[in-house]
UniProtKB/TrEMBL annotation:
Belongs to the glycosyl hydrolase 2 family. The lineage of its organism: Bacteria, Pseudomonadati, Bacteroidota, Flavobacteriia, Flavobacteriales. It catalyses: Hydrolysis of terminal non-reducing beta-D-galactose residues in beta-D-galactosides. Pfam families: Glyco_hydro_2, Glyco_hydro_2_C, Glyco_hydro_2_N. Residues 193-291 form the Glycoside hydrolase family 2 immunoglobulin-like beta-sandwich domain. Its cofactor is Ca(2+). Residues 1-21 form the signal peptide. Keywords: Calcium, Glycosidase, Hydrolase, Signal. Monomer. This is beta-galactosidase. Residues 56-189 form the Glycosyl hydrolases family 2 sugar binding domain. The keyword Calcium applies. One of its GO terms (molecular function) is beta-galactosidase activity.
């Protein structure tokens, strides 16, 4: 009996399991799942590379990246057109189990560029699908052969037969590809099944779900709220309203956690479709987040009742080696980088992304603007536009991360389509026109700082630039952001904005030996490079958009230990974050780059609610003044670094006080001629011009060190007057004097100079000091400082104590940290070539000392004893097409400079002067009675 009972139990469980499986949706992939997991199909390309013959191709993929067809960027739409007739043929065989015969089978294509004709066993699966960025499916149960092999054939035309689609999707400012570039799979469901579900889960717990079905047996439905592991959270007592094609379910969940970008709480909603007897026909689960979105006229955009300041970026779905074919792993990587920059929003540019990207935005927390694919031309074919909006919204409707729909981009909107979104969106999210004023919102792109949000005809609208600070090359992004954000944060109707764009869209050219091609200045717009290489703006954005805003300050002798702080979170109290304070010392030029921690303590952050201001105190150990710097590192509630702020404690003169030895031992000799003043010590020889006092040559142990032709005075309006030589027992001084000018008054001691001058001091042990005083107008546009020559071809790298590791511009000073850094030489042109970051050449701030590494051991170390001095290291090469302001063309003479002012960087569409006060070309240096002082020590 026992054996019979056990056998019966086994049979029961097998039968029950079968029933459960029959009630579920099953997915079988015919392609691979992503760019890193493809399946091999047969493929024929009509034109271009490897055309006219059958071959193999990985699916999903863009066929150009697999070595087929033609590459083309959208902007060459009207120039050359060999790819207009380009098409690909795909063949793939697959097996279908016999037991699927009693089920509903659909074939799903997540994305095909651009027209797709699908056949199963030689018969059309349905109408040709047009539109490159949309999911589509066909019911193919009647076309299949069960229990045996089936043939799938797909013809893909890269260019659509519908000219409206071509102008909207192909005549664009992004790369154009062909192919089945997103996964293909079979969706297998019970005959009586749920077609789709649209869910509205509000912040108060109210759930409305539209369950679409054409089942005649469907009578009702059960709803259960679960956690993401499928564990029941609570039963939901839903009212059910049955209509012809759907069931509308209304329920109320209690004690739920809401979804937002800071705390992305998610649940799972299980819906069971039932017949009249209560038998389960079909069961599906959908991820949901409880949140409410409101756009309040002349007010702002609210999520769960909180007004949001959007810190966003535009992102293409793109990878250099696979084009538009991506992966969930890449989506996770990108979202983590976006959030690491302290952003809270992302705009889809300029088409719906992969489903997994939206899934990751849901789970990690980003507000999303989802966009219909048009660039500057709308879908003028309203019929096809309506079809594509349906496909967009039906696929994406349940993502809590999506707050707004974009009806195209930059005049690419067909006004007849605006109302179509609401037909398919149960949440009735609002529609915007990026680059236009429409309904409640003004989304003007690339505003000049000085007209920002002051558009007189629409000044009562919410200001929401869906593109600003265009980041061509090294311009934009972080350059100017500090000024813009101060204005955005403090303007009631400004609700944030979106930088352009996330990554350089550089594609691997299989037809050009694998080079990375950004199509001139069309695609190098990123904060990061094609493979995610971080530019300097990445860290500027991270600091400017930190939700913990610490007011700028310096540490001086009377430092109180108190910092003023503002909580710029929307849903998080400040004390949910943690902060560590470290008092540190640095090694010198011969040591490593590690810091020595003198003291470490936890900072007690105040319990500030979102938007509140207050302060916190840092513990000051008894030896705090012996530290070189203070580090403050903030960590959010998810364990991610918000930012690490660094503050010098000592002046450069104090930091360098123990690093230079002025030994008076040894001999020192001076020989002068009409042309040169030669000063020799035991192992060093220095030659100076007898006419200008400039350093002309340095030798150390007979080896030439090619530092010369300095100090050339930058910004001096005085004429050079004379050279004087003072020969003392233990040093030699070479003094360069400039003529006195009328506006300098001789009110000082007679022993003090009141004109521009420099003094070289040579010591017996080969140490070389330089002191410079430079006077000028109060307001200047020229560089103010000194400069030298050193051949670039001799440079191997540099190590320095200062802000780093990235170069800075006047309007992009934030984001670096003060410590010891070491960079190898590179010749990267930001966004155009190399993508080796940090860039080696440019301006570096808060320089204390720098060790220049020469290729032939012919470098040197220079200690800068003057406060707030910039190092200029060589001259960056210029990109080919910088447009209006995305480069700095004028650098000081020579190669290595020490200056008190540096230029700002503009953007693709505007010079730096139009991007805010920090972009001004003018510098205020105060009273001319206080000269600019440079004190340097050279060690060879």
């Amino acid at each position: 009996m026992k054996r019979l009972f056990s056998l019966a139990l086994i049979i029961f469980f097998i039968f029950s399991s079968g029933l459960i499986a029959q009630n579920q949706t099953e997915i079988k992939y015919l392609s691979g799942t992503d760019k890193d997991n493809t399946a091999e199909w047969d493929f024929y390309c009509s034109d271009g590379m490897q055309s006219g013959k059958w071959a193999k191709i990985g699916v999903p993929s863009c066929w150009e990246l697999q070595g087929f067809g033609y590459y083309n960027y959208g902007r060459d739409f009207k120039i050359s057109k060999p790819y207009h007739k380009e098409y690909g043929l795909y063949k793939h065989t697959f097996q279908v189990p016999k037991d699927w015969k009693n089920r509903e089978v659909k074939i799903v294509f997540e994305g095909v560029m651009t027209d797709a004709e699908v056949k199963i066993n030689g018969k059309l699966a349905g109408a040709i699908h047009q539109g490159a960025f949309y999911e589509f499916k066909y019911a193919i149960s009647k076309l299949l052969k069960y229990g045996t092999e089936n043939l799938l054939e797909v013809k893909v035309n890269k260019w659509s037969a519908n000219e409206s689609i071509n102008f909207a999707e192909r005549n664009t400012d992004f790369w154009i590809f062909g192919g089945i570039y997103r996964p293909v799979y079979l969706e297998v469901m019970p005959k009586e099944h749920i077609e789709r579900v649209a869910i509205d889960a509000q912040a108060d717990g109210k759930i409305t779900a539209e369950v679409y079905t054409d089942s005649k047996k469907a009578a009702s439905a059960n709803v259960e709220l679960q956690d993401l592991k499928g564990n029941k959270v609570q039963d939901l007592d839903a009212t059910v309203n049955k209509q012809e094609d759907k069931l509308t379910l209304i329920a109320k969940a209690s004690n739920i956690k809401t979804w937002n970008a800071e705390k992305p709480n998610l649940y799972q909603l299980q819906i069971d479709l039932l017949d009249k007897k209560g038998n389960k026909l079909h069961s599906i689960s959908k991820r949901i987040g409880f949140r409410t979105v409101e756009i309040r006229e002349s007010d702002g955009i609210y999520v769960n009742g909180k007004q949001i300041k959007f810190k966003g970026v535009n992102r293409h779905s793109f990878y250099p080696e696979s084009g538009r074919t991506t992966s969930k792993a890449l989506s996770i990587e990108h979202v983590k980088m976006i959030k690491d920059m302290n952003m809270n929003a992302v705009r889809m540019s300029h088409y719906p992304p992969d489903v997994h990207f939206l899934d990751v935005c849901d789970s990690l927390g980003l507000f999303v603007l989802d966009e219909l694919c048009t660039w500057h031309t709308p879908y003028l074919d309203t019929k096809v536009g309506k079809k594509l909006i349906k496909e967009l919204v039906v696929r994406d409707v349940n993502h809590p991360s999506i707050l707004i729909w974009d009806n195209g981009n930059e005049t690419g909107w067909n006004l007849e389509l605006d109302d179509e979104f609401a037909k398919w969106d149960i949440q009735k999210r609002e529609v915007i026109h990026p680059w236009n004023s429409f309904n409640k919102i003004n989304t003007m792109h690339y505003p000049d700082y000085y007209m920002f949000a002051f558009d007189a005809p629409v000044k009562d609208k919410i200001y929401f630039p869906t593109e600003f600070l265009h980041g061509l090359y090294d311009g934009g992004h972080g350059a100017g952001l500090d000024d813009y954000w101060k204005q955005i944060w403090n303007m009631p109707l400004a609700t944030g904005g979106f930088l352009w764009g996330f990554a350089d869209e550089g594609v691997v050219r299989t037809d050009k030996g694998g080079i990375i091609d950004v199509d001139g200045n069309h695609a190098p717009d990123g904060i990061v490079g094609p493979y995610g290489e971080k530019e300097g703006s990445y860290f500027t954005i991270k600091e400017v958009w930190s939700p913990i805003y610490i007011a700028d300050r310096y540490i001086r002798e009377d430092f109180s230990g108190i910092f003023n702080v503002e909580n710029r979170y929307h849903f998080t109290n400040l004390n949910e974050c943690t902060m560590t304070a470290q008092w540190v010392n640095f090694n010198g030029p011969e040591g490593n780059t590690d810091v020595k921690i003198l003291s470490e303590s936890q900072v007690e952050l105040p319990a500030l609610s979102p938007g509140a201001q207050g302060n916190f105190s840092v513990n000051k150990p008894t030896n705090w003044k012996s530290a070189d710097a203070l580090f403050l590192k903030a960590i959010d509630m998810h364990g991610m670094e918000i930012f690490t702020w660094t503050y010098p404690v000592k002046t450069p003169k104090q930091i360098n006080s123990d690093k230079v030895s002025y030994s008076k031992d040894g001999t020192i000799e001076t020989v002068s001629s009409e042309e040169l003043i030669t000063v020799s010590t035991g192992d060093s020889e220095f030659k100076f011009s007898a006419k200008t006092g400039l350093l002309k040559e340095v030798k150390k142990n007979g080896r030439l060190i090619p530092l010369k032709d300095g100090p050339i005075m930058l910004g001096s309006k005085s004429k050079f007057e004379t050279v004087k030589v003072n020969t003392l027992d233990d040093m030699v001084e070479i003094i360069g004097l400039f003529n006195k000018r009328k506006k300098y008054y001789d009110w000082k001691d007679n022993n003090e100079m009141t004109q521009d001058f420099f003094i070289w001091t040579v010591y017996p042990n080969g140490i070389l000091d330089l002191k410079v005083e430079l006077r000028n107008q109060k307001i200047v546009e020229d560089y103010m400082g000194i400069t030298f020559s050193f051949p670039e071809e001799e440079v191997k790298g540099m190590k320095w104590l200062g802000d780093g590791p990235y170069r800075v511009w006047r309007n992009r000073m934030k984001g670096n940290q003060f410590k010891v850094w070491e960079n190898d030489y590179n010749n990267t042109i930001t966004g155009e070539s190399g993508w080796v970051y940090p860039e080696f050449k440019g301006f570096f701030s808060s320089i204390n000392w720098v060790k220049l590494l020469g290729k032939k051991k012919n470098g040197f170390t220079v200690y800068c004893h003057s406060d707030l001095t910039f190092l200029r290291m060589l001259t960056p090469e210029q990109p080919a097409e910088p447009m209006r302001g995305a480069t700095v063309a004028e650098f000081p003479k020579g190669d290595i400079s020490f200056v008190k002012n540096i230029p700002a960087m503009g953007t693709k569409f505007m010079p730096a002067t139009a991007s805010g006060p920090q972009g001004s070309a003018k510098n205020y240096f105060g009273n001319v009675d206080e000269p600019l002082v440079f004190e340097l020590t050279f060690e060879f």
